[in-house]
């Protein structure tokens, strides 16, 4: 039996391996629910003045497009993600992105029928709507996939207003907003991870045959069931 697949898109000046390490708790929790996580390196290898911190020069770091540009070409980034998606065919059910990777994930979710038709849901950590005006049409009509938008109340890199623009580009009945008290990072503690996994379980339940739902519930621990009941209430 094939596993369900999730694509993880890291933030600027990270890499697949770094993002995997930073989301270890989430990755392991998703594995228990039958998901395989696949982390994709950004299409842009960063060097020299493209890095924010010179101490990072010893690491292989990537982005999806040049940071801070008013306009940018996302086609190389799309090609990189779609190349990974094609390896897994219809098994790719979800996409999770952080920061710049969250912005790219949002654009893919907005046009999922064109790029990854098998997608059932998307999670954006500090994700934002692409600002160049030529992307406006990508979000019309609004994103129809179930979407979870996670923002840090102390995030000074991607401010709340930018996260909310992507939230507003999602259908009212399909979107959920979740806040944490930290800054620009993906929370990896058990309680928060449970909320993310609970939302994913809840988002995919309606797409599964009724006959399988009870069996699936039997494999969910009490913490996750409680999280499902409380998701979106705060």
TrEMBL record:
The keyword RNA-binding does not apply. It comes from the Eukaryota. Residues 3-196 form the Serine hydrolase domain. GO terms for cellular component: cytoplasm; nucleus. Keywords: Hydrolase. InterPro entries: AB_hydrolase_fold (IPR029058), FSH-like_dom (IPR005645), LovG (IPR050593). Pfam families: FSH1. GO terms for molecular function: hydrolase activity. This is Serine hydrolase domain-containing protein. It comes from Wickerhamomyces ciferrii (strain ATCC 14091 / BCRC 22168 / CBS 111 / JCM 3599 / NBRC 0793 / NRRL Y-1031 F-60-10) (Yeast).
